[in-house]
Every structure is written in structure tokens, then in C-alpha cells.
């Protein structure tokens, strides 16, 4: 099975972090490729940037979906996940979705713990879109600036552990989801300091993508994610325009 | 007061329909301009196209927001509404939002009635995003093809009235929201044939935009819609990149 | 267009406060009259008093609805709003409803901020009746007595600003709704001290009433707000009894 | 223990029906008095009439509460129940509340079955006010006119049994609540024809009122139902005005 | 009427506490028997123990249901209540259910106050199973060990009153439910120290069981609690196996 | 990694069906053992039997958990899943949970399709326990008897496909979950006849169990699933009693 990890952020170092975490749980029969968005912002953290990132996800999938059995949208708010699911036949898993659904199997309610205030509103909308508000005990975010997006997990590890402890003790979290591509790989390093299960979203996403590929679901011809009818467009990236027009090969 | 109506579809004829309906309820102290998206699809009806349309909304607002007191996102699913609200200081109202909130003042539960099956899933997500699921009795959509997007309201008027009657009698709708830019202006023409209030979203949006402009709210410096911090980007439309970077004049 | 503002409290000074705030955003083509309840309490703040106030609203509307294009129930808990909507053909807007729906267009979640503990339970029931619990971040009320109901907004302005700040910082409010007829006109005076949009309910209600009048919805003949069949009664105010009996002129 | 059954309808024959049903399950140590509203409509079925009925309940309780250990608001939509609970120290139970809570102990979800379309909207608001929407499978109402409010249960018995069967088979009802004062006493007569438990609300209300009296709860001095502070009023029924003013003896 | 109180805990002293509280409100025409589980744990407080307790409830009811008009599952989480309700024809009331539904008649939202942290998760699941999450202001539990399960109400009375006060003041509780079989009989002793109604669950359960017996509902032949078809089994307690196989006498 | 599949039904043939389906997607580095309940019923389908099955799950896990990295509760209603999760340190996945969470990654709303009416009520409670009611479009069950529990999937395959089509067309299902151990392995055989993704729960459960084992979460020492304190018991299966008493080796 071949899986494509799509980093909708433009920062290559994040793609490496994500891939490394994902590879640590790669099943023997699976291969992983990754790609970094060429257009957008270094690190998506707002509703505006989620639209920008969603466009990148759709463009990349239009170009490359035919070569893969499943794909991962590797930013926590899952930009473009619904669109990707309706437009392509292969399973597509979001980083947030994968982390949250994994948490659901490890306890009753989970808390999302992340490194920057700016991420909260977008994450909340993502939780709601997935219909998991009832399972989410809280979203907790660190205050304060950070030095570098690719290094924030080292810089803030201790503070994130403290924040997780607050989520457990004050919000009733049964599970901690460390959220955001820049925290990929952190969960295994801090799990012994946190007294409930801690989920690494990149690990979870890789495994779930492999699971969906293994289950080989047929792409929907009916229902709310059936592929839309062909449509003309103006000014869109070429591969995406062809996909929307049903003029791609797939 | 100056209001900008943004049609995120690329069809000029829809912009005219929308403007005409809006102008029919223009308060004396208000002026209305309109603009049609240069990039995208003739008529947005999917999650994919909502992302595309959201980009157009953001680009257009980046270029023109400084000249207006309020803006309207004139497609029923309100593409980019959350992003627009966090990125700009002027009030921005969505077509769906305006129609649904108006309906809330005219009865208990409303039904959304529209002309094409393809619109259902996106509209449902829009209702949920606005937190109005409890007020929505149903979303009803016509089956069957239509000849022309700019003429669909004439072609389908009788069928839409029938569909509204089903929503009233079978789903318990107190109010009908005729949904979709192509239906702009239809409500006043069919209201005598429907035994509950019928909302024209373009009319509602114009009035609510004027209301918000009149109330002159201060743009948020706190809360989930406070303007995000400046950020660099790659490959975005110029005006949008400048706005995201806090390098525009506003 | 002619709008009637009904103050279900018996305090004339509140009617003046409400009217002044409403007039500050009056569209050029609209006129506003107001009326104060002759029966009831100086200031409604309990479930009991809401029933009393609801009776006054129904009696006043029975006498005067035929002369207006829309009406406002000018107490925050919207006493009698559902009954008024089923009994009369003109649109009727509640102060709470108008404030909350306006807030919905300005952010994600709003907090209701008011001047007395006693108001909380009734306001909570009002939020729930409108199906807006998911959009309401909190209801915050000042402790402590106040000198005069018609002067409480001056006396408590600073404390109300503080309370709004708590709602923003602790409850995650994106918008503040200053609630209660006695706070009419305060929002424009304190909005520069509060870093999110602040809604004045009297202003909002006036504008929404004018909007509904402009949209000219047909009164419902079906649905849950269709006018009930004629019925006899004993001991009710004369105009109300005639309206219930379908023996009024309208 | 002494219990007062308050019929907020003005029809004496309904008071007799209600009392007879209630008396059929009267515990040996309990006595029951009843009273019929002097003001209002023969049979409450709308939001407007619920306000009128609520006034009657408050007036009657103001006059007579001191002589009783508990009271019953004997109309299915429980007019004035919240107000009664905040204004008086004795427990007050509503007909709808009693029927629905009893149903909750007999199955998972209940359906409300009643004899007239007009009752639906008010009943739905009552279910929601009690927070029991998740337990309510449906509200089913007969179409068609009836001859006499005091005889409707005989006239419509067969149709009501049919309607109950539909609720069981199509809506998944585990329990049937026969709703409306005019159906008091019907449940025991038709229960052998309905294959799930059937609740008589008057019976349930009598028993719950006796239970609350037996438990002797202290009236709330805190919380949302604590008695409001004394307040002046104009034009209210004398006993009610005294109670609101804290000038009654109790 | 004959009622059976089933203590699914193995501690006889708790059965006595429960019976004594229940008897204090026994209607004159009712008799009460009680039984203590022979298998299980001294005091149920976890999900695991709820399954164990549920088995005991089913075994005891299989042996004894034919002699009673109603039964009480006398542990706060209501172990086995759904199973008991589907397997037997007599009404079965849970301790939690009885306490919570009583609280619903005494105010808007209740808080559950209990003596040990361990009980929280199970109680929360119980609240949700009954669909009463919207009426539950909070579940508050004491920290710290206790000396003896049969004496904990004396030892902790003052702390429980303090905890109730916190629920009232911080969580907005209108009613306090003292939860857990070991607190049976405590409510009447502390009610004068708590400024809102306080519910004793054993008292409430006895009264509700008597009420259901008085209403004489027919056991369901349809719906989700209709008795399941006969089935063979292996290794179950004899009476339970016979009941499941439809080979018991009832 | 070693995974234990626990069939809480007493039918060996179901264990074989479950194992075969699970093995079809076994990752190369994983082994699967299975065990059939010695106590209980041939096929669990009621609330009563869920308690019986939950006891079997706990007894089996008490005996064997130390030899495995993860376990599967292989009956659709997930009997004992919460108890197992609090009592043991290894991850435990339920058949229903695995199927539903997989469906969540393949579409918006799923329908549960199964072969017998009797299963509906228990399945509904299972959906609610997992907090997935908002994602569940419907539960659809075949009417009519079946010949043999181990052969029902062959006998009813065509009818189940028809039922799935109804769920898609009438209930709006985006994904079909074929529910119940007896349907294990059916999904891959019928997926070409159903125009949306179809989930095999045994396959999904095997993959998710392997995923959780790969992620190696630390067992909770805090939160609602932390292992309960040691407790004595009477009459329980020996291994379970030792586990509850903290006297087992693990």
C-alpha cells in the first residue's frame, strides 16, 4: 500500500517531522511519500489560512491521487478534508480526525493541547465539523511566542506537559491529543510524564490511512460525498480544473 | 452607507439577479455596489467549490474592503464568511446567514428550499456551522436538471412552490427560505402562493448588512475573530498576501 | 413604514430610553411610536412578571396592531413574543431576539451582560426558547443593588464594562450583548472600552423590525404560528378577547 | 396531605374529569380539592391562551396556596409552572411534566398523543422547556373537529388508540402519554388495546404531587427558583399583587 | 401494593439504611420488602461493578418478581435497570432515576452530590443514559477516604453540606440530589442547612415505585422494552436462565 | 504484536467468522488469537444479554490480558467495553466502536444495517454511549426469522443489500456499517452492489486494535478510566475477583 502525506503548510521541516513520526509506526507492507505545499503560509493557524491550505490540498491531490491508496491531510484542522473526500476516490484522513478518533478508543473525553492561542478558534470549528464536540473535554493552548515553528516542540515540551496536566485535572480529560503538525513525534517522548494516554496525530493518521487502504472501500457513487458532476471553471490550477471537469485520467 | 455585494460565482447574470433583489429593499441612505468573482466556477454547489469561492471572497475583500461600510458574501453556503470576518474590520454577512436569521424572526423552524440535489450537503454544513440546526426543519431540493443557472427560477418556480408546500406540510416548516443566488428575487413573486412567510436571501442580506453598518460595531481586537497576527506567505493573490502580512493600508 | 415599540414595563422613563436608542438608527423612510404598559411592574425581571408583561403586550397589540407595519416587544426576555407572533399578522421582534441574532452576525459566540442577578434565570429560558444556547457563551450579571431603574446604566457603566471584559477573557465571548431595557443606548457609549463588538438591543430591534416590514412577509396561514381558530373567552381585556374571537376588524 | 388541583381552563366539566381521574389513585392519607379558572378560555390550546392560563394559575395560587401541601397545574402545557415554582413555597406539579416523567420510568422514549392539531406547537414548547426533547419520540395529534371538549375522549377513543399504534410502530414510542385535560381518565379504559404502557396525566400528577408533599422539600432560598424580592405593581389581581409585594401572610 | 427493594451491593447495613429511608414515606396501602445481593462487592462504584451488580439485580428479580407490584434497583447508577425493564413485567425504578426525576419537579437544574471521587464516571454515564444531561448542573464528589461505607453519611455530613453549597453557588444548582445508597436518610437531616430542595433517593424511589404500581401500566408487548423472545443459555443462574428461556411460571 | 479477539457469544462458529474476517486484513507484524465465551447465550441481542456478555468479557480478560498487546470485544454492542477499559492496561476495542469510527473517516453520516429487529434498542444505546448519535443516520434492521446464526449472512445477503440501499436513499447514509458478529466477512462480498463505502466491523476492529498496540499508549493513572482501587468481592469468577482485588500478577 502506498500512502501520500500532504503537508498544506509551506515549511519543509514540518513535512520531515510529520513523516518521521508517521514512519515510526509504518506497517511492513506500506510505503509513505510526502509533499509540501508550494503555495500558502509557513504554518496554517487561522480560518483564512485553512482556505488557502485547502486549495493546496486539492491541487496536490489532483496531481497525485492516482498513484496512492490513501492520503493524509497533515494539518490539525484538516483543511479541505470534506472537499478532498468528495472529489477523489481514495480514502483521505485528516490529522485532527485521526487523532481525535484514536482518542475516542482510549477513553471517554479527550483534550486537545497545542502550542499557540491563535489555533483555538480553528480547532474548535474542526471538532464541531467532525461532530465530536461531546467527546472533547477542552482545547488548551499555550500563551506566549515561540522561536521557530520547526523547533517549537522542544522549546515548549515542559509547558505542554503542564498544560496536559491541567486538562486532566481541571477539564476531566481521559486522553490528551497533542495537536498541530509541529508537535509530531512529541507524544512518544513525553508520554511517561502524562498519566493518561497521549495521542500523536501523525502516527494515528498514518495507521488509519493504512487501515482504510486495507479495507479497500469503494468510492461513493451516492450520498453526500459522491463525486460531483463535471463542471467548467476559470482560473484554477490546471490539475484541479481538469479533475473538476472530469477530464483527468482517473 | 456603502455596501459591497460579492458574488463568488463567476456568472455575471447572477450578480445582476442578486443586486436587483437587494436594491428592491435598499434603505434611502444606503448605496450598493457589486462584484463578480473572476476565478472559480459558474455556480458554486460543492465543498470543493466553496473553498474556491472562499478564496475569491478573500481576494476581492482584500482589494476593496476599505471603500465599504459592510459586505455581503452572496452565495448561500457563505463561502469564506468566517475567514472574512477575522481578516477584515467591516461587517460581512452571508446570504445563508441572512436568510436563516430572518426566518428565525418570522417563525419557529424554517425549511431551506432549493433547485438542485447537489446543493444539499454543502447547505447542511452551512446550517451546522451557524449553529442553527435546531431551527432548521429540513433542506429540500428539486431533482432533475435545469436549463440555465440564470433562468432556473423561472423554469422551476412551480416546482419550488410545490416543494415549499411539502416542507410546510410534512416537515413542519413555519418559514420558507428560498436558497441559492439563482433564486434571488423569486420570493416576492411566489409569496402569495405559499401559506407561510417566504424569505428572499438577497433582500435579507442587504438589510442586515445595512443594519450592521448602522450599528457601527468596533472590529474585534479579542475573541475568536480578532485579526490574526501578520504572517508571510507564498504564491497568494497580491492583495490577500498584503492583508495577511498587515502590509495593506487599512 | 410605521413601527410600534411596546414597553411591557410600566416605567415611562424606560420607554424614553428605548425610543431614543432606537431612533438613533431609524432609517429615513421609517417612523417609530412607543407605548408603555399600563398594567404590571416597573421592571420585569422574573418568570411571573414575564407572564404579566406578556399579557400587556397582547392587550396593547390587540388595540394597536392594525396601524403598524411591525412591532417590537421591548423587554429583553421577549415576553409574549410567541403568542404575539401567532395572534397578529404584522412581524413582531423581541429585544433579546434582535440583540442575539445581531450578535450572531458579528462573531461566533456572544455573552449577555446585564445589571442584576435576578434577571439570569429568565434570560436563560429566553436564550433556550430561541434555540440559541449553542451560540451563547455566558450570561453575566452584576451583583449588588442599584439606585434607580432608569439611571442604572450610568451608575453601573464601569462595572458593566468590567463584566464584559470577564465574559471575553473567561467565557470566550466574541460579541457582547448589553441586555435589558434599562441599558438601552449604553452600547454606543462604551464600545470603545470593549475590544469586541457590543450590541445595543434597542438599536438592533428597531433595525430588524424595519427590515421585516420592508420584506413584507405574508402572515402564516399554516405552520405553528398560523392564527388560531376563533374562541370565546371570559374576563379578558376587551380588545384581546375580540382578537381571540376573530371579532376585531383586522 | 392536602393537594389543590388547579384547572386553568374555564370549563367545570374538565375539572370534574381531572378530579375523578386523580381520585382513582389517591393515597389513603391524602385529600384533593379542585378549582376552575374564572378568567380565560374554555380550553387552552395556544401560546396566547397559555399566558392567560398562567395568569389564572398565579392568581388562584396567590389566594389559596397557604392551605395546601402541594398543587397541580392541570393543563398539559403546564401554563405558569415556572412562575408558580418561583413565587410559592409549596411544590407545584404540571400535568405534562407529571405525565412525561412517569413515562420516563416506564420506557426509553414516549409519544404524546392528543385530540387536536392546534395543541401541537404549544406542547412541543412544553417538552423543550422541561428538557425532555431527547426522550420524546413524537407528538401526534388527531385531525378533524370534535363535538364537545368535555366529551371528546368518548368521541375520539378509537381514533386515539389508532394514533397511539402509529406512534408505537412508526415513531418508536415505548410509552404513550395521553395528553390534555379532556383525556383524563381515558388511559385506564384503553390500556388493554395499546401494547405499551399508557400514562394518564391526571393520575400521574396526583401521585407526584403527593410524593413531593411527602418528601417535604424546603422551598428554595437560592438558585433560579428562589422567591424574587418584593416588588410594587399596578393593575394586577389583588392576591397576586400582594404576593409579589411580599405583603401576603405566607 | 407490595414493593421489593433490591440492594445490589453485598452490604446488609446499606439495605437497612435504604429501607429505613424508604419506609419513612411509605403510603398506608403499601408494603416494602428488601433483599441484599449475595454476589458482588460491598459497595458498587465502577463500571465493572455495575455489570456485576446488574447480574445480581437480574438474578434476584428472576427469583422474586412474581410476588411484587414494583421493584427498586437501590444503587445510584441504576445497574441493570434497562435489562430489568425489558425482562420483567412489573415496573422497576432506579435510585438515580427516582432522585433525578424528583429533582426535575423541584427546580430547573440539579446537582448530584456524593461522597467519593470513584463514583463520578459511573454516575455521569447514568445521567446520560437517562437523557438528563441538560438538567444536570454538575456532579460533585468529596475527596478523601472514609472509614466505613455504612457510616459515611455521619462522618461526612458537614463536608457534604459544604459541597452542596458549592454546587448551588458555583454550578447554579436549583436542587441537590444526595447520591449513593450510603447517603440514604441523610437528606431529611441536613435539609435545613441547604437553601434549595434536597432529594433523598431512597424516599423518592419508594414513592415512585408505589406510584407506578398504582397506575398499573400494562407491560410492553411492543417497543424497545418488549420482552425478548425465548433463548437458550449456558452457565447462568438458574432462575435467570429460566426467565430468559420463557420457562419460568410468570 | 499479539491481539486477542473475544467473542462474548457462546457460538464457536461466530468466532471463526470473526477471526477469518479479521485475518484478511492482518498486518504482517501482528498475530491474532481468539476465544469464545463459555457462559452466556448463543448470540447476544438484548440489554440483559449485554450484561451477561460483559461479565464474560471481563472474566476472559482477567485470565488472558497479560499475554496480549490489545483486545477486541467482538459483539456489535461492545458489551463491557467501558469496564474492560478501566480494569485493564491494554487497549480494548469494541466491534461497534471500530466500525463506527471507521465509517466516520469515510463519510459524514453512517447507517447501521443488521439482520434482526431485536438488535435495534441495544445498538441505539451503544451509539449513544459512544457519543456518535450525530453521525448516525439510522439503524435499519431486517424483519423476519432466520435459519441459523452462523449462516444468516448468506441467507439474508440480498435483503441486507436492499436495506442498505434504503438507508442510502431514504436516510441519507454516506457509509454503511454491517453490524453484528454474524455478518463478519460479508462487507467485502457485497461492496460492489452498494454505492457507498461498506464497513466490515471485524476487519475494522482488527486494524484499530493493531493501531492502538502500535501507538503504545500508557494505561491511564488518572481520568475516568484510571484503574479503580482494590476491592474485595464475593462470588465472582476467580480471575476477575483477583483483578478487582489487585491480587493478580499484572
From TrEMBL, chains A, B, C, D, E, F:
It comes from the Bacteria. GO terms for molecular function: amino-acid racemase activity. It holds the Pfam family Asp_Glu_race. Belongs to the HyuE racemase family. This is Asp/Glu/hydantoin racemase. The lineage of its organism: Bacteria, Pseudomonadati, Pseudomonadota, Alphaproteobacteria, Rhodobacterales.
